[in-house]
Amino acid sequence: MSLKFPIYMDNHATTPMDPRVLETMLPYFTEHFGNAASRSHKFGWTAEEAVNYAREQVATLIGAEKPEEIVFTSGATESINLAIKGVAEFYRDKGNHIITTKIEHKAALDTCKRLEKEGYEVTYLDVGPEGVVSVDDVRAAITDKTILVSVMLANNEVGTVQPIKEIGALCKERGVIFHCDAVQGVGKTEFSVKDMGVDLASITAHKIYGPKGVGALYVRRARPRVRLTAQIDGGGHERGNRSGTLNVPGIVGFGKACEILTKEWREEAARIKGLRNRLKDRLFAELDECHINGAWDDARRLPNNLNVSFSYVEGEGLMMAIKDVAVSSGSACTSSSLEPSYVLRALGVEEELAHTSIRFGLGRFTTEEEVDYVGDLVVNKVKKLRDLSPLYEMAREGVNLKDIAWTAH
Amino acid sequence: MAYSEKVIEHAENPRNVGTLDKEDPNVGTGLVGAPACGDVMRLQIKVSDAGVIEDAKFKTFGCGSAIASSSLATEWLKGRTLDEASAIRNTDIVKELNLPPVKIHCSVLAEDAIKSAIEDFRKKQSAKRGA
């Protein structure tokens, strides 16, 4: 098989849709175009049936006991907003304190920031250099005003997996609602709302080889029954939790994507981990001064994530040198804000190293041939850019870069 | 963000990469930027007794635009007098490389590197005359 360019290794950002998913969706654009809320005719019934089947498929993947616990949304950003704001508003009389971590996605962090402006108090927990929050820190942060703990299953930059089961047990014990942003982890690492004591969980289709524009919020209906204040008003769809005509083809595709993962995820995760380790081994065998960002052990890292800092080589410069390969970087230069990655900062990664980080995100369609090509290319270009790097030359000459009075600009 | 063809061309084939002897009295070295900010440029010039830049070398830690800005600067410096070199403005680099607004700081850094190299050379010369 010959390589096709560009090569996609940015599967944390989004994934290509699985052809099986597309095939399942197609009839729902044309033939079965009905509105799932139309109760008076066959078109509506067919659409509703398809949606309910997808609800079961999604529920099965995440270990929900009832399909009714799945609320379809436009994506994980909406799910996270609904979970956090919905709980904050509904349980306002009970308390005003929320606990989360510094490495959550912006959808959670910015939602919390908005709530702070509205009088809520938010604790943003540190994570250590491993990029994993400590359960003891969560425990210590809970007060009698705490109404919600929100922790991600796995981080989108460094792929570190959080102790969800332990936090779930703690929240149950303390009577606090627990939301888990499971976007990056579901289908890649163990996740079950039932086994892990999760009360609310946000997921999205496009990270698991489904279509963009559709997500779900799992809302526990028993032990305890979680209530939300809806954030979008209208026709009262999704049991009043989320008004708006359902995206039937998207939901059908989402369901199919979940069904595929329910059957295949373990095998797929093992295969992708093999490829990811092959890439890591190649880079580390050929290059000195490479640093993994975040925990590396299997239990605490997604199988498809490799986040590595190549000292003395700026991330965006490297991405340009490997422009036929799609990856991303925590370098400041890649964001429009010119701020370096807040996630790497939370891990205590020094700014110098944060600027040299590259995130490789492997996926279902990554091949061994691609991994070998990318490995060789990165080795070659890092060496070339180090020849171009004054910092590498100075470090080789024994200059301590920290002793230099740099002119920050 | 898409890069201009000129940036890509310079970043892929950087001109005048290398190191001049910083102890040489005819060599001026400018080291600007900071690793924590994501870009560091070292630009060196070798100046003839007649005051003409006969060689220029650079090494840069930074994004493609930073590499391209310093590569272009070395190209422009060769054959110029020090006064002519001092007249190079970051806006000239922005224009030549079609740098977008978020990359203007790369051109500013290149201008700073040129100035700093000239200053280093002049300092060395006056120290030599003073000795």
Protein described:
The complex is a heterodimer of chains A (409) and B (131). With 409 residues, chain A is of the alpha/beta class. Chain A has 2 domains: 7-12 and 265-389, Aspartate Aminotransferase, domain 1 (Alpha-Beta Complex); 19-261, Aspartate Aminotransferase, domain 2 (3-Layer(aba) Sandwich). Chain A contains 13 helices and 13 strands. Chain A has helices at residues 19-25, 42-62, 76-90, 106-117, 135-141, 164-174, 193-196, 248-286, 315-321, 342-346, 351-354, 368-387, 390-396; strands at residues 7-8, 70-73, 97-101, 121-125, 146-152, 177-181, 200-204, 215-219, 290-292, 305-310, 325-326, 328-329, 357-361. A 7-stranded mixed β-sheet of chain A has the order 2-8-7-6-5-3-4, with helices on both faces. Chain A has a 4-stranded antiparallel β-sheet with strand order 9-10-13-12, covered by helices on one side. In chain A, strand 3, helix 4 and strand 4 (121-125) form a beta-alpha-beta unit. In chain A, helix 1 packs antiparallel against helix 8, helix 2 (42-62) runs parallel beside helix 8 and helix 8 (248-286) packs across helix 12. Chain A is globular. The model of chain A has no long low-confidence stretch (mean pLDDT 96). Chain B has a single domain (5-122), classed as Sufe protein. Chain: A (Alpha-Beta Complex), CATH 3.90.1010. In chain B, strands 1-2-3 form a 3-stranded antiparallel β-sheet. In chain B, helix 1 (5-12) packs across helix 2 (64-77) and helix 2 (64-77) packs across helix 5. The interface between A and B is medium-sized, with 31 and 32 residues.
In short, what is this structure?
The complex is a heterodimer of chains A (409) and B (131). Chain A has 409 residues and is of the alpha/beta class. Chain A is built from 13 helices and 13 strands.
Which labels suit this protein?
heterodimer, A: 409 residues, alpha/beta, Aspartate Aminotransferase, domain 1, Aspartate Aminotransferase, domain 2, 7-stranded mixed sheet, 4-stranded antiparallel sheet, globular, B: 131 residues, alpha+beta, Sufe protein. Chain: A, 3-stranded antiparallel sheet, 3 strands, 20% strand
